[in-house]
């Protein structure tokens, strides 16, 4: 009797596979085991593992996570087929069970399937948060926070052993995003936190860890009952995350009835959304979901790029020197830079691009899902398959990039390569219908943080550490790829002391 259940499950799986085989010509890939598929053969950095498999099986491969089929493409031509030629059929999202519950089945933007809801919500975000006018209006927030970061690093830079660069970057991006989205700053490094701040930070940190992830059980329909064992945990998190936003929404609604608010106040995203809620017919769940989307998508991606860039600059001192020369020539040493200087700093922009090429923060983009049967080349992608684009592999493809592993920003002065989804060789923000709507904001953040860090400091390693010892492997806890070992570096000031003090702006 005890064997009966596993045997019948095996039979169902085998029957399913047999049923699939003749109908579809699937891309090749590693041999899947019954029930588990390939899931236990995937190494810690899946994008590296998929790259290795692509070398063996070809640029489009099938990988089974339990009974879920993943199609992974690893060349620029195939990325174009997925994100441009067949974009319409491949723009749904694969949501795990936690994301499904937290977003009430995709009522937000990131986890929404492609369709009228996605189109509407993207339009709202594009107009209200990411339009050139909104980005420009919020520039003082970004500059204020970047100046605060420089001040804190200056304060701490005498520590002989250097400092953990990520701590400062995490602080600045978190403050920028929360101020842009919620109009609020949730405390800062080394300062006492009030209860609301520590609760908000705890909820945001739990979001990053995926709250609850069931591993293999996510991909095996008959193991999904395990989700119910974790239901209490997810319900609790859902209530905590709602509790952060709902009172702000209520506050706004009450205030809105009386006064229009200060005329010159910088409009933050929650405010803008609630003002337009009726016009766009947005439910409270959608507003709540969008706020968390922005916090989640915005807080890690840019800091990841800057940390990698600083590591590369320490390993490549000639590049750092060239960046310092450009900054000294364009800005000089009697003022700090600001975002308006960026167009005059082409080499700095090339450094940021090169960091995004070698270390794309989301190496497999976000998981797309086929909403219809699609043919790519000789192969079928059945409806419901998860589709991943290995942009990490494309960005290191020697057929496209000469000397691909070298950190050489000059490659972008020799040829101009678009980074925002028009050139399929370089896709850190994706392309097509699901391209990152925050791409320009992300680029501004990376360029601005990097520019300030370089203008104000010379970066080196703690005494006794050699550049070759920096751990250049990734940690891939969810969708993003951090440096596996947080970078410890020594900043040495290179400008007059008065330029390290943040001038508080009234906003
Ligand atoms: C260097 C910084 C950033 C990088 C590399 C990046 C990268 C990406 C990528 C690869 C995607 C998925 C594309 C796909 O599915 O094909 C994405 C989606 C998204 N990003 Fe970004 N991003 C960055 C910054 C930001 C910022 C600052 C925000 C907002 C504050 C943001 C908001 C979003 C949203 C809302 C989506 C979902 C779009 C959709 O599903 O339609 N991103 N991003």
TrEMBL record:
Locations listed in the record: Membrane
Cofactor: heme
Keyword Transferase: no
UniProt keyword annotations, A-Z: Heme, Iron, Membrane, Metal-binding, Monooxygenase, Oxidoreductase, Signal, Transmembrane, Transmembrane helix
PROSITE patterns: CYTOCHROME_P450 (PS00086)
Topological type in the membrane: Single-pass membrane protein
Stretch forming the signal peptide: 1-19
Assigned GO CC terms: membrane
Entry GO MF terms: heme binding; iron ion binding; monooxygenase activity; oxidoreductase activity, acting on paired donors, with incorporation or reduction of molecular oxygen
One Pfam short name: p450
Binding locations of heme: 436
PANTHER family: CYTOCHROME P450 98A9
Family per record: Belongs to the cytochrome P450 family.
Name of this chain's protein: Cytochrome P450, family 98, subfamily A, polypeptide 3
Source organism of the structure: Actinidia rufa
């Amino acid at each position: 009797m005890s064997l009966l259940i596993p045997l019948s499950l095996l039979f169902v799986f085998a029957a399913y596979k047999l049923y699939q085989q003749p109908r579809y010509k699937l891309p090749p890939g590693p041999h899947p085991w019954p029930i588990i598929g390939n899931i236990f053969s995937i190494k810690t950095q899946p994008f590296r593992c998929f790259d290795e498999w692509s070398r063996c099986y070809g640029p489009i491969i099938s990988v089974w996570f339990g009974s879920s089929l993943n199609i992974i493409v690893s060349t620029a031509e195939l990325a174009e087929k997925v994100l441009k030629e067949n974009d319409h059929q491949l723009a749904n999202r694969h949501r795990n069970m936690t994301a499904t519950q937290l977003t009430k089945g995709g009522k937000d933007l990131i986890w929404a399937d492609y369709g009228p809801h996605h189109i509407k919500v993207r339009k709202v975000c594009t107009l209200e948060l990411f339009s050139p006018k909104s980005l420009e209006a919020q520039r003082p927030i970004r500059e204020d926070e970047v100046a605060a970061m420089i001040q804190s690093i200056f304060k701490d830079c005498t520590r002989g052993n250097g400092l953990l660069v990520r701590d400062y970057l995490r602080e600045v991006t978190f403050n920028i995003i929360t101020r842009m989205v919620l109009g609020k700053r949730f405390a800062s490094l080394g300062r006492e936190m009030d209860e609301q701040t520590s609760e908000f930070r705890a909820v945001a940190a739990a979001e990053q860890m995926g709250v609850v992830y069931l591993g293999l059980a996510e991909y095996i329909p008959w193991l999904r009952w395990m989700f119910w064992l974790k239901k209490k945990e997810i319900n609790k998190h859902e209530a905590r995350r709602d509790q952060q936003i709902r009172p702000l929404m209520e506050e706004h609604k009450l205030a809105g009835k009386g006064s229009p608010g200060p005329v010159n106040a910088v409009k933050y995203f929650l405010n803008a959304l609630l003002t337009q809620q009726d016009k766009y017919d947005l439910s409270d769940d959608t507003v709540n979901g969008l706020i968390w989307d922005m916090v989640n998508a915005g807080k890690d991606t840019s800091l990841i790029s800057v940390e990698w860039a600083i590591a590369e600059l320490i390993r490549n001192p000639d590049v750092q020197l060239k960046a310092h020369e450009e900054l000294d020539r364009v800005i000089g040493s009697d003022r700090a830079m600001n975002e308006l200087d960026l167009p005059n700093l082409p080499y700095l922009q090339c450094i940021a691009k090169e960091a995004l090429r070698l270390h794309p923060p989301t190496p497999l983009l976000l998981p797309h899902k086929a909403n219809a049967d699609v043919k790519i080349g000789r192969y079928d992608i059945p409806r419901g398959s998860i589709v991943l684009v290995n942009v990490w592999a494309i960005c290191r493809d020697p057929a496209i990039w000469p000397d691909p592993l070298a950190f050489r920003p000059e490659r972008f002065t020799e040829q101009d390569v678009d980074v925002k989804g028009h050139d399929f060789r370089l896709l850190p923000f994706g392309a097509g219908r699901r391209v990152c709507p925050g791409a320009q904001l992300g680029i501004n953040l990376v360029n601005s943080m990097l520019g300030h860090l370089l203008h104000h400091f010379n970066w080196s390693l703690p005494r006794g550490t050699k550049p070759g010892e920096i751990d250049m492997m990734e940690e891939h806890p969810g969708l993003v790829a951090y440096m596996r070992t947080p970078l410890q570096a020594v900043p040495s000031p290179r400008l007059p002391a008065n330029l390290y003090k943040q001038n508080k702006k009234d906003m």
